[in-house]
Write a structure and sequence with these properties.
Two copies of one chain form a homodimer.
Chain A: E1 2-7, H1 12-22, E2 26-32, E3 46-50, H2 55-65, E4 69-73, H3 80-83, H4 89-97, H5 103-116, E5 120-121, E6 136-139, H6 144-162, E7 168-172, E8 175-179, H7 185-196, E9 201-204, E10 218-219, H8 221-229, E11 234-237, E12 243-244, H9 247-257, E13 260-263
Organism (chains A, B): Desulfurobacterium indicum
Domain LpxI C-terminal (chains A, B): 140-262
Pfam families (chains A, B): LpxI_C (PF06230), LpxI_N (PF17930)
Chain lengths: 264, 264
Amino acid sequence: MKIGLLAGSGKLPLEFLKSASKQGYETVLFAIKGITDPGIYGSADRVYEIEPFKLGRFLSFVKKERPDKMAILGKVEHSEALSFKNLDFKAVTFLFSLKDKRAEAIIGGIIREIGKLGIEVVDPTPFLSHLLPAQGVLIGKLTRDIEKDVEFGFRIAKEIATLDIGQTVVVKKGVVVAVEGIEGTDRCIERAAELAGKGFVVCKAARKNQDMRIDVPTIGVNTIEKIGSLGGKALCIEADKTFIIDKDEVIRKAKNFGVMVIAV
Amino acid sequence: MKIGLLAGSGKLPLEFLKSASKQGYETVLFAIKGITDPGIYGSADRVYEIEPFKLGRFLSFVKKERPDKMAILGKVEHSEALSFKNLDFKAVTFLFSLKDKRAEAIIGGIIREIGKLGIEVVDPTPFLSHLLPAQGVLIGKLTRDIEKDVEFGFRIAKEIATLDIGQTVVVKKGVVVAVEGIEGTDRCIERAAELAGKGFVVCKAARKNQDMRIDVPTIGVNTIEKIGSLGGKALCIEADKTFIIDKDEVIRKAKNFGVMVIAV
């Protein structure tokens, strides 16, 4: 069995390649130049490097390889999608066909384009289930104050995520301090700290009816460092629908910073 | 007939006092020190100045005056609500009784507190209907590009407003660039310009089932200056549910900057 991977940045693509290889798959990596970490190229059986937004070129590589299945993983900064430079003809046509340019529309559209070649894009979580936390407190102590903000913030984050705006909402004492747009989670947290000072709670949620093939929430050591160094009190993520990269290190850092982590 | 006004900042309170006086009302202004513009004190028949967050003191003044009706108008920066300094006992009790601290909850709570004194808080729009735009293009030309972003952005702004997060969403080419949290409209627009460059569209919406007594969207000359100076393309507001302060000057400025203004 041959599985293809269209990879953005971050460590999820590497985790996927290792897991798929271990399960006996032949792996083909479609890497995006300047975005995919070249350090993972060695973990795939074959690599195609594509310039960003060269959709026609990408599809022709997929057609040539004809993997049995495809997966899409990793981050493409939402803000990069705004520049839209160096589009090939296929990409232009593709973008015009979208109703809007939010993550779900764009990745959903790519899934359809791959589907037109007769190749199915599959849910990658069977290869990554070890990264998905179960419900519960991962580290720290749930006080009544945190609990209230977690409950409130998570509900709002869920709505924001479902609108396909961003996944992160920062709250403090029942006030929505900051909502993530295209600036990304880190800058959203920085803004919140600047506006509200210490003691904020960061909530990250998946969409209602999250398609696990599309843009699944992901956290890692840097998320905790950002929250901890700015005086945040807690991080709330969604159980079974958030990838935690380097979980042990995440928990160690969270403990050091005194940041509570909870999966709801 | 005596009407009371609890006034935040901005020019809406002045417009209200002038209009109520013209309609023959005796006006009592409850001004918030450091927030309400003292320049409007002269337009009221009587003035009480209250320190911010001295809710007990405010209610005792209202009780003493016993106006036939009350209105609440003007801005209290959402971020100020986070500081919660100098609360009196009543305010502490009040804040603890709220399920969260969003604008709707806070102002709704104050309306209930005033209601307990047997005084009704009324919709101020009968005094301000000259500030509410009808549906249509106020200035500029609606291109197909702007139309698409207006349609998309307004729909999202409506959801955000209904969640009582903020009223403003900035979009560009089908991407939600920035969502207003507690930082206010201006800083949301600045962030959007920084992230997405020129050509963005600012959409401001009222909540679904907007209670016209609570935090009605308001724009003025500064809104247009902000958008225009940063290269924004259009401002979309909600017809009949957005106050335009200094409408003539707003339209003149928008024309100069080449910013289109549309009420949908």
